[in-house]
Amino acid sequence: MRFLEGDEADDPLLSVVNLIDLFLVVIAVLMIVIVRNPLNPFSQDKVTVVENPGTPEMRITIKDGKELTRYDSTGQIGEGKGVKAGITYRLPDGRMIYVPEGEQETKK
Fold it and tell me: 102 vs 81, 87, 90, 105, CA distance in Å?
């Protein structure tokens, strides 16, 4: 009966089955990576991803449903026209309070 054991070790079909098993494991790992990615194309969430924060190469990607918007930093300081509208304070419990400037009344 020893001559039957040698045939199983040399069977090329077993190698093909092992390769198919390996590919199934690789595909499963790749699917897990795609699902865990915040910018995954199958989610309907709103997500903001900031890459390289605080550097001149900073990039912001915003996903709103199926729409992706990418903002690249130019490394230059922005400039615009406007006036200071007020001051915002953060309370110890995390709430934010906005106090407008210019229209403050004094109580007598």
Answer: 18, 11, 21, 9
Predicted TM-score of the model (pTM): 0.40
Neighbouring-strand partners of residue 71: 60
Q: What is the spatial distance between Cα 50 and Cα 8, in angstroms, rounded to a whole number?
A: 55
Confidence at residue 75, expressed as pLDDT on a 0 to 100 scale: 63
66: its two tokens: 């199926």
* Separation in Å, CA 21 to CA 13, 16, 18, 30, 58: 13, 9, 5, 14, 41
Q: Quick check: helix, strand or coil at residue 104?
A: coil
Q: What ranges make up the beta strands (E) of the chain?
A: 46-51, 59-64, 67-72, 86-90, 96-100
